[in-house]
Amino acid sequence: MSTTFTLDTSTSRANPTPAPMRRLTVPRIRARKVDGVTEEPIVVLTAYTARQAQLLDAHCDLLLVGDSLGQVIYGLPSSVPVTLEMMAAHGAAVVRGSYHSAVIVDMPFGSYEQSPAQAFASASRLMKESGCAGVKLEGGAAMAETVEFLVSRGIPVMGHVGLTPQAVNVLGGYGPRGRSEAEASKILSDAQALCRAGAFAIVVEGVIEPIAIAVTRAVACPTIGIGASAQCDGQVLVTDDMLGMFERVPRFVKRYGAIAEDISAAAAQYAAEVRSRAFPGPDQTYQPE
Ligand code: KIV
């Protein structure tokens, strides 16, 4: 018999465990697109914390631990400074908070571009430390060899074409892509190269709608649009953007909540009650038996 005692964490905020569900797998998500048609669009949201994952999980097919956490969580100016350590820690939190969605973790800038071997070392570390089902990386044809290397060694990969935020310093900003013929045909050939290399899905971000539709028709694997088209095989948004956490969001974001106002109003009421000594009241204080 073990002599170590077990801490009772059943009342912890971290464990409002629902009845375990069967988690969606990458092959099942890939298989949603059959002969170019996806009957049921794939629902994706970003998640960075365990609690956020708990709340989103039942509604999504896939939770993306995006490197957008650089701006959203850490207040960084772009995703460029995000590290593998950050992605592994947030990835693990999201896996702990979810039971149903497949969890995919973004590979941060600088962790995969140098060589397929570097990408394998980084991706396998993310999978071991977080328990995620696969990784996402940015870039098109230039990354095809790396995608093939990872997939053939057991690492599911999601691609990302069009507006690729890690390349903001080359692109010069976050404007939509695909307006010129050269840009449009590069986005198309990038997506085709990733799909041929074995990507199970491809994020198509910030491209003009006809190109998003053309890409979706041209590749066998599902496309996940953001600032793209409702005709993509699925959609993703940054959760904090769609919840109304930020004043400034890209044009393609639809706000489904007003969480910033709710937080401000709650903080203002709390501050007023502390200052007037209305809080804590009888319900929040312990008295002698
Ligand atoms: O980092 C991120 O959140 C993303 C999605 C917006 C696709 O890459």
What descriptive keywords fit this protein?
single chain; 289 residues; TIM Barrel; eight-stranded parallel β-barrel; 11 helices; 10 strands; globular; binds 3-methyl-2-oxobutanoic acid
What is the mean pLDDT?
A: 94
CATH structural fold name: TIM Barrel
- Number of individual domains: 1
What is the CATH top level name? Alpha Beta
Structural class: alpha/beta
Strand content: 5-15%
Largest pleated sheet: 8 strands, parallel, barrel
Query: What global shape is seen?
Result: globular
Instruction: Count every beta strand, where a strand is a DSSP E run of 2 or more residues.
Output: 10
End-to-end gap: 39 Å
CATH level 4 superfamily: Phosphoenolpyruvate-binding domains
Identify the strand order in the major beta sheet. 3-4-5-6-7-8-9-10
Would you identify the regions where 5 or more consecutive residues have pLDDT less than 50?
none
> Ligands in the structure?
3-methyl-2-oxobutanoic acid
Question: Can you describe this structure?
Answer:
With 289 residues, this protein is of the alpha/beta class. It has 11 helices and 10 strands. Strands 3-4-5-6-7-8-9-10 form an 8-stranded parallel beta barrel, surrounded by 5 helices. Strands 1-2 form a two-stranded antiparallel ribbon. Helix 2 crosses helix 4, helix 5 (116-130) crosses helix 6 and helix 6 (144-151) runs parallel beside helix 8. The longest helix has 17 residues, at 181-197. The mean pLDDT is 94. 3-methyl-2-oxobutanoic acid is lined by residues 46, 64, 66-68, 106, 203, 205, 226, 236, 238.
